[in-house]
Structure prediction request, 425 residues.
Amino acid sequence: MRDRDFLNHFLEKGYFKNHSSVVLALSGGLDSMFLFHLLSNYQKELGIELFLAHVNHKQRPESDIEENELRKLAEEVGVPIYVAGFTGDFSEANARQFRYEFFREVMAKTSSTALVTAHHADDQAETIFMRIIRGVRLQHLSAIKERQEFDKGELIRPLLSFYKKDFPEIEHFEDRTNKENSYFRNRVRNLYLPQLEKENVQVKRAFLEFGKEVSDYQIALAEFSQTIDVEDLTQFLSFSEAIQRVLLQQYLSHFPDLNITREQFQEIHHILRTRSQYHHHLKNGYELVKEYQHFQICKIRPKSDEKSSNCVLDYQNQVHFEGYLFSFGIPLEGKNIQKINVSRETSLILRHRQPGDYLIKNGHRKKLRRLFIDLKIPTEKRGNAIIVEQFGQICSILGIELSDLSIKMKNDIMNTILYIEKIDR
Prediction:
């Protein structure tokens, strides 16, 4: 293929349309060197300023020589290069984490909004096959994305549609460890896939199509699940167990650092179907909270984590508090504006629940603790509830209950309105 064919693909896909400065992860191998060749030669056509980021893993005698050669090449071409030497206990996982942390640093230093890597179709097929061998869940068998969010910008893999055989032979460094079979990926690349190609010469393409089909199912499921409040157990349990498992997997995908096992997944599903109330520590700082007909997976709050201090709001003023805009006597327009009858005679206090709190309802005092139990309010929502106080009494528990004090026909001193708009949607 000609260089121009790759350029046309980049332009057609619009990879760099929204990026003026990009960082290329440069290993020195054929794939990244070819991508360097393309991006450096076509910076003007792509409308980008290019920066290079190289990690010397210090695992081979040639590593330092290659680093020096890459520095020289970058200087000749006139492209800035940033280099880091790996430190710590070497493993594939540790090395990958080190690289991407370094790439984030380079993006910040150069004010770049995109990280570009040279992953190609062979890498894609190998990754899908490796995940099948490891026995991961279906959602992890999807294709590697061409574009995805990364740090404060985007990670772009513009060569994913091409196989390594499509790249011309240009000057690059050959890592001799790629021929060794001590690493899993090397065994897949050097042993397993060549054997499978004897059965089906298009086996890599078959894996790619399989990954793409899984991706399509995931997108469709994500769109479908947006219409369902999975945390509402009345809705969740109305579906068959098969659909429940799929919805739960989709829900858990929102917590990428949770990494639960199949056994833990089954345990969570069992709890949701059988327990009425339950607090269950999961892993990595997460917990499952199930109360009445609602459940939530959330980070465990540190004991020292305190709510915002009390907020005093005077008449004809506005204030932002806990994700809401409170407007005391100044009208707000919109469909989702809440209104509470209050008095203009004294300030309002916005706060959270305190021990001994009560409100007057139908002429009787009612403890908030008992009110929350009677209304089956989940513990998390109890702690987050915003209380509006005036004259030393609770006017309202926002979105939960109004006291007699805020019912205008019972209190003619309530001569103005507190307007409330949720702003952190």
